[in-house]
Amino acid sequence: MSFSDLFNSGFTTRNQDHFASIVRVAFSDNIISQEEKCFLDRLAQNLDISKETYLKIFKNYKSHPINPPISQDSRIERLYDLARMVYADDIKDAHEVTILRKIVIGLGFQAESVAKVVSTSLNLVSNKVEFDTFKKEMKTVF
Predict the structure, then answer these.
(1) Residue 10: predicted pLDDT
(2) Are the C-beta atoms of 86 and 125 separated by less than 8 Å?
(3) Is-contact 10 1, C-beta < 8 A?
(4) Number of domain units in the chain
(5) In the chain, count of helices (H) and strands (E)?
(6) Region of residue 93 (left: phi > 0; alpha: psi -120 to 50; beta: else)
(7) Which of 28, 68, 91, 121 could hold 108 in an S-S bridge, CB 3.0 to 4.6 Å?
């Protein structure tokens, strides 16, 4: 196995774990809305997740760990995707927010800043800000 194969394998696993975290948020209310399904479909394509893997993750999303990214920018990018999933069906459910808080800790955000990170991220997403604005604003939170 070459070095590039090892890198690609790790990258693929991280993408699948990230996708599974978002599926977990989507399933938090036990219903996948059409908006959530469209978001998940686009995200799977962007993360280069095959249809076969997509279906496996849907069936067993809880078996995937939350792999925290090393860089702050990567954590913010994942947070953006997760916060967008909470609002994908234009309804912010309390259970989804609770799961988001847990995942935010798993992503490597400091426990004492989780409430502010979650509330700020959800506020920004509800205002439909672009990722660059989201990233800039989130960096002021921590």
Answers:
(1) 66
(2) yes
(3) no
(4) 1
(5) 7, 0
(6) beta
(7) 68
